[in-house]
Amino acid sequence: MSKISRRRLITTGLVATAGTSGLAVAAKLAERYGLIPPDSGGRYGAGETLTYAAQRLLTRHSMAREFARNQISKVAFANEVAPLGEGFQRLQGGGFADWRLAVDGMVARPRSFSLAELKSFPCHTQITMIQCEEGWSYIAEWTGVPLSHILDLVGALPQVRYVVYRSIQPDWWESIDMADALHPQTLVTHGMNGGELPVAFGGPLRLRVPRQLGYKNVKYITRLTTTDSLKRFGKGLGSASPEGGYAWYAGI
Amino acid sequence: MPDGAPISSGVALPVHNGRAMDTISADSAADRASPAPVALDRPRHSAAVRVTHWLITIAFLALLVTGVEILLSHPRFYWGETGNVNTAPLFTLPLPSSRDMVPTGYGYVLPDQNGWSRYLHFQSAWLAVMTGLVYVVFGFFKGHFRRNLLPDPSDLSPRALSTDIGRHLRFRRPSDEEAWSYNVLQRLTYLLVIFVLFPLVIWTGLAMSPAVASAIPAAVSVLGGQQSARTIHFFVSGFLVLFLLVHILMVCLSGFRNRVRAMITGRPSTCMERA
After folding, report:
1. Residues A217, A208: contact at Cβ < 8 Å?
2. Any idea what the CATH number is for the domain that residue A162 is in?
3. A38 vs B contacts (CB less than 8 Å)
4. CB distance from B123 to chain A under 8 Å?
5. Looking at B24-82, which runs of residues are DSSP E strands?
6. Domain that holds residue B249
7. Distance of residue B44 Cα from the nearest chain A Cα, in angstroms
8. What is the pLDDT of residues A19-34, one digit of tens each?
9. Whole-structure pTM value
10. Higher-confidence position of B50 and B25
11. B87 is a domain residue
12. How would you class A92 by CB atoms within 10 Å of its CB: exposed for 0-12, middle for 13-18, buried for 19 or more?
């Protein structure tokens, strides 16, 4: 009896030591390889970190599924948005000719782009699904400029780790890591199903991040900011979503 | 197997029978004197089974509550890749929704609970998956599946099965000896839950993730699409809830205190129940 319990004690001790040091090493590695999400504090931080780290390792280079033309949803669903303000309506009245996308932060050449300029850049078209965290979804053809192309034009600095993007709608802002920002399917989208991107679906400009859920695909974007840390933005949780109780990373 | 013989006598039961009898006297003796007799060195449920059982219980209850909350934001189900309020649903649950864009027939909208529900759902899923992995590794290496869950071939004959089903349908309370083993219906049900329902609910849950779908597209296409995955996830969860209800009912019928005690301390207190 005593023999068993001594052996047990030693085994348990070894397992506990190995476990603790394993966790410490894992935490160091995770921090170094950018596997800790900005909302990793708090009571759901453990689960959130596991989800983000696991999905990042799994999807660093994966491509969102693309569909055939006949799979495009006949009637897409434009989710409701808060009433668009006077500023938006004025721009809409002018056919969005004066819509600007400003790019700043850790870039060599901060500047802003007009809608016409963005449309003149080499564009990319893809048929992908957009899924809402509520459970509904639709498939559409999206046309836009890869975000990586814009980051190249402004000379994003090598230490950039996140891209923050804002809507013209107040308090609507998100951010993504470089795995998503430089991903070839991440588009500054201006077209949908062969036409202009309708206002209900985020027109004139929407950031499409097809490997994440709908709420990361912010409508009416006006500003991109590159940064090496999200601590200075809002409450430092990465985006408006965690401030409203939703996860920063929305890959699931 | 002759008629009237205890159907559920598993492979290990004869040994356990003896131990069960020892325990009756030993247990009460152990309450007074400290040296633990031989009969107590192997509990009814091993520590690994007990700990993982209660961890899974916590995780499952959290998954259930948050799953219902998430479901309420869109209580409509579809088949195939996509679905939304503009497409015909496969079926709609007669529930109010937490989103005013969903037509439900109810004149009110529930408060949005998706933020914390989604956080907790995935955190609990991690707990369930990790606990499940520990349990499965333990089960294979320590012979738990072979010894306690794999049914004896003789118990799988139609006659033996129908006898056992009849005993369950008549709500016949199992004998005290049976508290030391699982009957064949229990074994089959547990195997189904562990090796079919749990893997399926995890798979269909992951298949709803756009990131996982990008990495492993086949995990989605095999199921018929992401909305199909969501619908299957709902039904498998339903079967797991059904299992939970029947499991609790059976625990109540066979002696709630005794069975729960066995799952906490490792030992049913046969003597105390009798006294």
Report:
1. yes
2. 3.90.420.10
3. none
4. yes
5. 76-77
6. 43-274
7. 18
8. 888 888 888 888 888 8
9. 0.87
10. B50
11. yes
12. middle
